[in-house]
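hey can u check if this looks right to u? its 380 residues, i copy pasted from the old doc so theres a chance i mangled smth
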Amino acid sequence: MADAEIVGDYTQNFEAWINDFNEWQTKIGFDPSWLGDYRFDIKFDWDTAGDAIEFGDFEGRPKWERRMQVPQQTIRDAIVNMVSVQGDTEFASVEQQNHLLASAPTEYDKKSALRIMCEEQRHGWQMAYLLCTFFGEQGVREAAKLLERNAQEGTRILGSFNEPIDHWLDFFMFTHFIDRDGKYQLKMLSTSSFKPLAASMGPMLKEESFHLGTGANGLRRVVKQGVIPCELVQKYVNKWVSTGLDLFGTDDSSSAQWAYVYGVKGRYDEREAQEPADREHLNEASRDLYFQELRDEMRRISKVRKEGEPELYIPSDKFKRGIGKYAGKHYTVHGEDFEGDDAAWDEYLSAVLPTEEDEEKLINEYMKEEWIQYREWKGD
């Protein structure tokens, strides 16, 4: 990636938003002194953003650099929506996770989580900057909402970002599965027809790689240590995979089709793909790539388990889905039709998802031991 441009001067709208951000930090209990010398820089990688629109009905035309270059209000609305949703997830994850710093199992994990939270806030700043700087009053209103919604109150836009992250096993699951989804979303925006949005993605993707790497590394260390049984680890895998899959949206999504038509959001492999896009199944295509990546990663993690422990696996993409063609239907973790009434289904779920008893044993028994492989922090 080429050296990113760091913006030095902010608009009055964004300066006002920063004051609201400072109040938000206080509200959620994030102490600014934890940042040290970290700066929420606004970064653009213009070289990787590209100059010409790469797909959709405007393909070949110059990418739009200002709001008034965007030819239709519906396209401007689509861009604002994409930026707003992305920004919403960034601040939500900090609300979900910042309480964990006090109970970090090692200094390495504490500093890794703090770095992630700093970078997530920077990503949120980046999205708020786009809204305040390029989209006038509409953008200012949407930027304000980024700090008004709250994960702890269940008012964030996407379901995964309202889920409680109660302990460090949840944290590693979240960063492994949900931040990996984030990588897909960022890469799909990296070819956007709105050039400032595309140029924002390069620096964000570079930072995001550390986040999902923290999740994979954390799960590997948990499994290798062997204190928490793989049978229990599997329950948390089952819990988080379905919500990660749901983040890709509905099947046959018309909004995904229009985003592609406008050139606003492409495929995950847009620049590498050889075949024309199937515009009616864009979400499914990206979700399938994500699902296969999860399976490959879990096979690698499972290899370090102790002898006699069951192999870890990714549950079926049909299991406990809230969005799409499998939503609300009863399938087992292996993708088979579940046969039984609602009471039997609830009993089945208690066998494959974490129960209150599981949570209590995890926190009050397993996590009282050295439950994760030690790793030394070698950063600053």
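Residues 5-311 form a domain with the Ribonucleotide Reductase, subunit A fold (CATH 1.10.620.20).
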